[in-house]
Design goal:
With 250 residues, the protein is mostly helical. The chain has one domain. Helix 3 runs antiparallel to helix 8, helix 6 packs across helix 7 and helix 10 crosses helix 11. The longest helix has 29 residues. The chain is globular, with a radius of gyration of 18 Å. The mean pLDDT is 82.
């Protein structure tokens, strides 16, 4: 547990010392929230909504987006550590690679949840209200699961790569479809029939709907189904990430 805590603390210190990283990571989510939210609020109709407008519908998706992007790109730190020799020094220590991988995962997930919390606070400032403390805790739980799931995913990809620029290109190629097929921007019920199965295979979909249930009290998928599906996906991602990290070359 000491190595997990140490690597988590290292990630936190690097994150808090990089003000440009904090501000830069908020740019795209804030743009989507303000531009799409206010721009399409009077245009997009939410099926079966009872007084819910598009901005309210959009907020959970943008929170999930912020957590997704931050957590996935935390994997680039693995490549950075490879290039500067820190990872090699860590791996020769008398600790298991699983602990090292978990420490990196928890650190990336924590920074991702913090970024998501910033978007949540911003949404409160523009008039979105949280129904209850219970709902906030539900939303927070799903934010944590998204962060862990996709931090492990980012580490799994980074473990097989040596070039940071290549990692960014591949992640952009993968992450945008994950986000676009999550029901974050538009209701699942409004999507074409052939897209809905792809959406239901996407782990982020269950995270978005779980956060939406916590913040709005409604969701297209039952919250227990969301919790089970995202929880299972998180376990699978951790197993895959741990396996690939153990096989990583220096």
């Amino acid at each position: 547990m000491d190595i997990i805590y140490t690597l988590w603390l290292r990630s936190m210190k690097r994150y808090l010392r990089s003000k440009s990283r904090i501000v830069g990571s908020l740019g795209m989510p804030v743009f989507f929230l303000l531009a799409l939210g206010f721009g399409l609020n009077s245009v997009v109709q939410i099926p079966g909504s009872t007084g819910e407008n598009y901005i309210q519908f959009l907020v959970p998706g943008i929170i999930a987006m912020s957590v997704l992007f931050t957590s996935v790109f935390s994997g680039i730190m693995i490549i950075w550590d490879k290039q500067f020799g820190f990872l090699k020094e860590t791996l020769v220590a008398p600790v298991s690679r699983l602990e090292i991988m978990l420490g990196q995962t928890v650190g990336g997930a924590t920074t991702a949840v913090i970024q998501g919390a910033f978007i949540l606070v911003l949404s409160l400032l523009i008039g979105i209200s949280i129904p209850s403390l219970y709902g906030f805790l539900i939303a927070f739980l799903f934010m944590v699961l998204i962060g862990i799931c996709f931090s492990a995913f980012g580490i799994a990809i980074a473990s097989k790569m040596e070039d940071m620029h290549g990692f960014q290109l591949i992640m952009n190629f993968v992450v945008f479809p994950i986000f676009g097929l999550s029901g974050a921007l538009f209701p699942i019920e409004s999507l074409p029939e052939w897209v809905i199965p792809l959406t239901l295979l996407n782990p982020l979909t269950y995270g978005v709907e779980g956060i939406r249930y916590g913040l709005l009290g409604t969701s297209a998928i039952h919250p227990f189904v969301c919790l089970a599906a995202l929880g299972a996906s998180t376990v699978v991602m951790i197993v895959i990430g741990a396996f690939l990290f153990r096989k990583a070359s220096l």
